[in-house]
């Protein structure tokens, strides 16, 4: 079942009519107020948005509601496949509760629920416990269409170049060739890998690409049928990848977990509220750091249903307290006699074998696509990861294997999946190389106390109150243009809290972003608006609405 054309679906047509009426009542979108003073062709964009998934579309919609319509979104994916929903998201349903308003921006008829009931009926809504990921992608396609958001698909951004005059050049390639536009503001809405790439442990460096993948790669799961699969990590992404491999017919799946026990409590759920959404940005750096550091140490457990989806298979084996010691490409013949290739090690281990990351993986809080982070639909996968995915797809023809060694023994795997999160890494993002040595990171602004050092957090961008990047200390004057770029992606979590890590608070984040851009554009053009103020001469009154008593022939005086 797919979302229906409103011309053939009375329910959807009625919803779109209701949406138009609601927006009319709210006087939305606001009238365009940006007046182009540029005669260049093509015109300078007010805002370019890199990414057209959940964050990118919501940002574009929020800007449109503010009266900023000279906007363009760029996404490397084909239309209808933006974000992770139809590629590396392998959960059956979203982890967010279905009632979350998501990107609706305060407009009832723009919610997922309104769309779903229009397409599938209210009874289907009440019968559905959680949102199937395919339905959410259909909703985002409708969201883009009904709001007429401007997107160029199949467009891979190759360079973002700030200029001394405050403008930003953005280059991309597509099937029709190379292109360039100039923008006054650029929003980076590239999802989980935002300013970096998928994180792989150093042990993976010696493995053939055809034997391994990151959990964010577009893995051809059917080719894992009959294979021995190892999964490193045990957060939500690890569970989803393990389940997908098992459901594809993997002979066995061994899940290697560093921790002795599995986190059972999501600490962030305990403080989730509008206070957290609106207030986190105002916390002192010390409290922000402590919250995120302790959250990283505690880790977020995978959803119970995600773990049960794995443990339902007798071919799944959870290896607790099993950090990797080595990974070695080999064949079954040279692996050694004591290999545990088929041993039911830890077969009876607690099925809640979740929430962990690969030993030594230094990643940002929740960057294992855990509880909520996975549903940021803007994860525009790093180009290298997509290239690797295409080579890894040929796993069925590879004769080799991987010897996995932990303190508990050795195992053989035909394929290994690293569910080890993402990292900020400008070396992995050549399109952002002009920003590499110019943007302020947390390590430039805050030094944690002893015992709280964390390079993943320290390398997160240190953002302003509206998601703007900031120049490094001492370079504020020469690099002021850096603040014309905005990070509305997962790396913003350290500065703004969990607004950009999932669906629930994405509207609040997009409105914060849009209001900041609105203010900055207006302030930048302050003199222009003063000139418009002085030149404005359209009369409100015509002069015939009253009579001047001094000009009247008849009047009384005392």
TrEMBL record:
Q: What are the GO MF terms of this UniProt record?
A: flavin adenine dinucleotide binding; monooxygenase activity
Entry superkingdom = Bacteria
| Keyword line | Oxidoreductase
Cite the InterPro entries for this sequence.
Auxin_biosynth/cation_transpt, FAD/NAD-bd_sf
Which SUPFAM superfamilies does this entry report, sorted A to Z?
A: FAD/NAD(P)-binding domain
Presence of the UniProt keyword Oxidoreductase in the record = yes
Family matches, as Pfam families: Pyr_redox_3
Is Oxidoreductase included in the keywords of this UniProt record? yes
**Protein name per its UniProtKB record:** Cation diffusion facilitator CzcD-associated flavoprotein CzcO
């Amino acid at each position: 079942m797919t979302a229906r054309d409103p011309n053939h679906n009375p329910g959807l047509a009625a919803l779109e009519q209701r949406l138009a009426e609601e927006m009319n009542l709210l006087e939305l979108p606001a009238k365009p107020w940006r007046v182009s003073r540029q005669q260049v062709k093509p015109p300078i964009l007010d805002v370019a948005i890199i990414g057209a998934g959940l964050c990118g579309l919501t940002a574009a919609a929020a800007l449109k509601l503010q009266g900023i319509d000279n906007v363009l979104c760029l996404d490397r994916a084909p239309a209808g496949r933006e974000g992770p929903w139809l590629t590396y998201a392998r959960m059956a349903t979203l982890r967010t509760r279905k009632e979350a308003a998501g990107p609706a921006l305060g407009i009832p008829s723009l919610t997922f629920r309104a769309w779903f009931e229009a397409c599938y009926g209210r009874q289907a809504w009440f019968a559905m416990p959680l949102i199937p990921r395919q339905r959410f992608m259909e909703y985002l396609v409708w969201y883009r269409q009904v709001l007429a958001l401007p997107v160029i698909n199949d467009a891979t951004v190759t360079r973002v170049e700030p200029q001394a005059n405050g403008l930003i050049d953005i280059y991309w390639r597509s099937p029709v060739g190379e292109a360039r536009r100039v923008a006054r503001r650029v929003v980076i809405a590239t999802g989980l890998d935002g300013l970096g790439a998928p994180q792989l442990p150093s042990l993976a460096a010696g493995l053939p690409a055809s034997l391994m993948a990151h959990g964010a790669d577009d893995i051809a799961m059917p080719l894992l049928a009959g294979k021995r699969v190892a999964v490193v990590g045990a957060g939500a992404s690890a569970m989803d990848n393990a389940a997908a491999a098992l459901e594809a017919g993997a002979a066995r799946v061994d899940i290697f977990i560093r921790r002795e026990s599995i986190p059972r409590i999501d600490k962030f759920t305990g403080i989730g509220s509008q206070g957290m959404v609106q207030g986190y940005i105002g916390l002192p750096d010390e409290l922000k750091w402590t919250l995120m550091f302790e959250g990283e140490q505690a880790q977020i457990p995978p959803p119970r249903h995600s773990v049960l989806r794995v443990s339902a298979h007798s071919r799944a084996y959870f290896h607790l307290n099993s950090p990797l010691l080595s990974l070695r490409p080999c064949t079954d013949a040279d692996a050694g006699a004591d290999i545990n290739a088929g041993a039911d090690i830890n077969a009876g281990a607690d099925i809640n074998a979740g929430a962990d990351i690969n030993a030594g993986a230094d990643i940002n809080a929740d960057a294992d696509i855990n509880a909520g982070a996975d549903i940021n639909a803007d994860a525009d996968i790093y180009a290298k990861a997509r290239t690797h995915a295409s080579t890894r797809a040929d796993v069925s023809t590879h004769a080799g294997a991987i010897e996995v060694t932990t303190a508990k023994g050795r195992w053989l795997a035909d394929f290994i999946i690293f569910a080890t999160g993402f990292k900020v890494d400008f070396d992995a993002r050549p399109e952002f190389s002009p920003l590499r040595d110019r943007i302020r990171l947390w390590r430039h602004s805050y030094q944690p106390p002893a015992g709280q050092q964390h390079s993943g957090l320290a390398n997160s961008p240190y953002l302003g109150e509206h998601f703007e990047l900031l120049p490094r200390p001492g370079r504020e004057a020469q690099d002021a243009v850096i603040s014309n770029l905005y990070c509305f992606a997962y790396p913003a979590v350290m500065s703004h809290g969990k607004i950009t890590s999932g669906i629930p608070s994405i509207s609040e984040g997009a409105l914060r972003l849009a209001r900041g851009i609105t203010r900055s554009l207006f302030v930048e053009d302050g003199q222009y608006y003063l000139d418009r103020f002085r030149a404005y001469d359209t009369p409100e009154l015509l002069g015939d609405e009253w009579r001047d008593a001094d000009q009247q022939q008849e009047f009384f005086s005392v």
